[in-house]
Amino acid sequence: MLTHLTIALDMMGGDYGPRSSIPAAVAAVNQNDQLILILCGNEQVIRDGLDKLDSLNHPRLKIHHCHEVVTNCCEPAQALRRKKDSSMRVALDLVKSGEAQACVSSGNTGALFFMATHVLKLLPGVKRPALISAVPTETKDPVYLLDLGANVFCEPQTLFQFGVMGSVVASRRLGIERPRVSLLNIGSEDIKGHEGIKQAAELMKKCPQLNYIGYSEGSDIFSGKAHVIVCDGFVGNVALKTCEGIAKLIMHKFTKALKKHLFYKVLAFLLRPVIKKLYKRVNPDQYNGASLVGLCGIVVKSHGNASKKAFLAAIEEAAREVERQIPEKIQAAFERIGTATTTSPSSKVD
Amino acid sequence: MLTHLTIALDMMGGDYGPRSSIPAAVAAVNQNDQLILILCGNEQVIRDGLDKLDSLNHPRLKIHHCHEVVTNCCEPAQALRRKKDSSMRVALDLVKSGEAQACVSSGNTGALFFMATHVLKLLPGVKRPALISAVPTETKDPVYLLDLGANVFCEPQTLFQFGVMGSVVASRRLGIERPRVSLLNIGSEDIKGHEGIKQAAELMKKCPQLNYIGYSEGSDIFSGKAHVIVCDGFVGNVALKTCEGIAKLIMHKFTKALKKHLFYKVLAFLLRPVIKKLYKRVNPDQYNGASLVGLCGIVVKSHGNASKKAFLAAIEEAAREVERQIPEKIQAAFERIGTATTTSPSSKVD
Lengths: 350, 350
What we know:
The structure is a homodimer. Chain A has a domain at about 1-130 and about 295-325: Isopropylmalate Dehydrogenase. Chain A has about 350 residues and is of the alpha/beta class. The longest helix of chain A is centred in the C-terminal third of the chain and has 26 residues, at about 235-260. An eleven-stranded mixed sheet of chain A has the order 3-2-1-4-11-10-5-6-9-7-8, with helices on both faces. In chain A, about 45% of the residues lie in helices and about 15% in strands. The first copy, chain A, is globular, with a radius of gyration of 21 Å. At the A-B interface, helix 8 and helix 9 of A face helix 8 and helix 9 of B. Chains A, B: InterPro entries: FA_synthesis (IPR003664), Phospholipid_synth_PlsX-like (IPR012281).
């Protein structure tokens, strides 16, 4: 049982920066007595924000001034070299030094991925870190989808390792011993897809520690068929953002249709609780907090357009990962699987 | 103005085969006086099906008996070599010989793509055919998404050509002179994505005939920002199927939530027309009929799990493409663009 839990926050990232991160930080410490937050960013801006919320002297909110910000246009390698006093870098450094047990950022994904890999380093045997997130399904359990954008291309061995890491996360988060692991493909038959996917499938089939159930198609993601779905970062990112787009489209069309007649307008008013609940179930904000797994440390990536609620969800996610010891459990899984996953260990990030 | 329009149908493909294709064929000829359909497949099965619908002797429904079927497990190259009297192959042969002006199949996508390319051949200068489909947006116009699964990997030049072909389709279908063309990527900034995408973007920027507007993310697909969105077949297939999955999930959760209380049950009953209309707008059945473009002939691919309604939509789509002379217009566009797109013409399909 943890008595205290310290999380470093990059306060300046994302589309809204301190406008969402400050109220989220205040809400987080108010609802979790064990939480200490180190707020990395422009001191004056953070002080002003906290002051407005009557939280300037909160004993568990500590400000760490940084004079730089990693913007969305920063090239990852440049951000690493030049932005050593940025809020993103400092938050990662605090995890590296052990002052914080995890960090959260809603900044530039590429830069965060690159910096985190260089600062925290990969766990032994891990080829590439991956961005993983829970996605709602028709069942009570979500599905864990990875990679969501950290790696544009993935070798078969990398996809296999993502399966192992996803399996650890799903197992720890859902309390399931052998989560069902699947590969995202353009058909469920063995002959479908490209060579890389087929080779990854072979590696997964051969691994007794992995409960591999075959391919999934895009339409299977939400059925609950698998607990973990593996794909490369390009495909995962497009799939996740497509979901957001179509969810918004459906809500838009539904609201528009209801506004056409007074009768339906009244119905819409009566239906508000159901629609609100539904949106809560499919709204990405509720599932915010994708994590970078495979690193010697916990890094949670919040959406770039994260609201206060979404940023709060990301802080809560980081706290849960500390409690569930995700990096330690991934390391143990890689040790168990042994040579199968460690044929070419590398901490190179290109 | 066409007086008659002949379309060959592969009656045996897809999950439901003649169960959906026969009633769709009957409905199609009943609602379009100019349409003649050649029904390719098992004569006895088709005769029995038509008999049940009192349409056995319909003057514009002609049966062409074929004794083979291309199943979903068929490897594309094997299907081409061994299934010369299959319903899919015969439908394509009828287009090749000019007996039909277009064909429709809901069979194995890989086999259809491979067979169609070999039988009909590519238009001069076209490197690869692409599967294109209309997808609903928040605006009145749909967006044309390609490729949807015909090409797992695409070179930059191929993606560029998809932009040209998509632009022709959108222009002809929406009546817009310069449709907005975009590339699907994992971020909207110029630095995002892999080298192939960046090179394709350069080719599109340089082409004065193309109204290229930059990158789109998955969430932009449905916003109406672009009229044409280009991606490789793996990404496009996952994006499209993910849409189907999340639309089903939202409907499922909504219906479930409404069933929880009698009050909401009553509301749900009253809301039926709105929900029905909404589902009609986002239901893939309504947007069924992805086309293979870039070939010397019109081939419409219906969903594998196409219902009667969906197969009917695919037949209607084929008829519209004949009227709008899509292949001729694509050929003209490639001639106008000239050498930019024809640096390495090839009709090889691997």
